[in-house]
Amino acid sequence: MPYRWPALAAALIIALLPAGPAGAQQDIRITAVADYVEANVRPWLTEPAIINAVIAQNALHSLLNQAEIQDLDARWRAELLSAKRPLIDATLSNPLSLYLKGRQRAAEGLITEIFVMDNRGLNVGQSDITTDYWQGDEAKWLKSFGAGLVHIEEAERDESTQLMQSQASLPIRDPSNGEIIGAVTVGVNLDAL
């Protein structure tokens, strides 16, 4: 059974935005991002490259405690400032990251970044370096993985790319049983949309 973002959820998100010209412009952007991810991102979330990588990492990380998760995140952040980056390099060169980089290139500038998270909120693969390795305490993971919703953040200028973008996060479901196994966040370039 395909999982579609109901129109009611879109209306609810739009209803929560401020009224007036700025709110109306934000409404249009959220609708455009929602339409884009439904048509162009959701179809590839059942690809074996994504599903198999998430399932494998869920098994690998099943026994991690919160302190170990935070240690991995601290290691990632330290590596951002270092010439030696074994965790970052291993993640950016894994098969899923290479697949996501291809998806980003194929989007011809509409996608600014893609990262896939496991059931603990840890990055499984990504098209570009993220500022942290653990997303489990952020709305993008809590609402997509935790609540099973599509979560679209307000538009903002990305610090690294200087593009106006909005991040859309979606749950990743095991196609065999519909269970949520991870999440994906996609940066959508509003300047190109």
Structural description of this entry:
The structure is a single chain. This protein is α+β, with helices and mostly antiparallel strands and 193 residues long. Helices cover 43% and strands 18% of the residues. It is built from seven helices and six strands, in the order ααααααββαββββ. Strand 5 and strand 6 form a beta hairpin. The radius of gyration is 16 Å and the shape is globular. The N terminus is likely disordered.
Please specify the SSE layout and strand pairing.
Blueprint: H1 7-15, H2 21-40, H3 48-60, H4 66-79, H5 86-92, H6 95-106, E1 111-117, E2 123-126, H7 139-146, E3 151-152, E4 156-157, E5 164-173, E6 180-189
Antiparallel strand pairs: 1-2, 1-6, 3-5, 4-5, 5-6
Tag the structure with descriptive keywords.
alpha+beta; disordered N terminus; globular; 193 residues; 6-stranded antiparallel sheet
Task: Describe what is shown at a glance.
Helices cover about 45% and strands about 20% of the residues. The protein is α+β, with helices and mostly antiparallel strands and about 190 residues long.
Q: Give the mean pLDDT.
A: 88
Report the sheet-strand fraction.
15-25%
Rg, Å, rounded: 16 Å
The largest sheet is: 6 strands, antiparallel
Element-level helix/strand string: HHHHHHEEHEEEE
Low-confidence segments: 1-20
What count of helical segments does DSSP give?
7
Shape: globular
Helix content: 40-55%
Gap between N and C termini: 29 Å
Q: How many E strands?
A: 6
Class inferred from helices and paired strands = alpha+beta
